[in-house]
Amino acid sequence: MNLTVPPVVPSFARTVRAARRLCVVAMVAAYPLHLQEAAAQQPAAASAKVYGEVCAACHATGVANAPKLGDRAAWAPLIKEGQAVLTAHAWVGVRGMPAKGGRPDLSLEAFSGAVAHMARAAGGDWKEPDAAMLGRIRAEETKRVAALKAKK
Ligand code: HEC
Question: Of the residues 47, 58, 107, which should be mutated to test ligand 1's pocket, given the most ligand atoms within 8 Å of the CB?
């Protein structure tokens, strides 16, 4: 009598085990992503801190014509551009404004929070960016980079 199990049985079992492992891996990978999204909306105090540590160097006194914190006249036309567009343009860099405020290690979350902080200081009703807003900023960033490339 032949007692060897048909090869399809163990291979099927292996496939099931592999699929199960993949599911676990996917769940573990997706979990922190979800947490990151929740964390994307940083508290206003954190944005004020980023402003103080990075942006204030120029935006407190208006170095090279940087729009000053709380200067409503300077900020009014910028606020009108809208949060996604203005944040993306500043993030990419514009004239005297260095990309990422000159801090390549700064996250978009931290940077865009600091922009919102400055907009609020000039009377704008800008919220800390949530995941949806960060997505819009990323889309504007892509457009801006493409437009700048086309100009060259
Ligand atoms: C080294 C100086 C410097 C630092 C640091 C700096 N900025 Fe600026 N920023 C400027 C200057 C100069 C301008 C004005 C650019 C222009 O319109 O010619 C500007 C303009 C801007 C604008 C308006 C952009 C536009 O489209 O006109 C935003 C928003 C902004 N900065 C955000 C920030 C944030 C947020 C930080 C900190 C994370 C920061 N900046 C750090 C110099 C700086």
Answer: 58
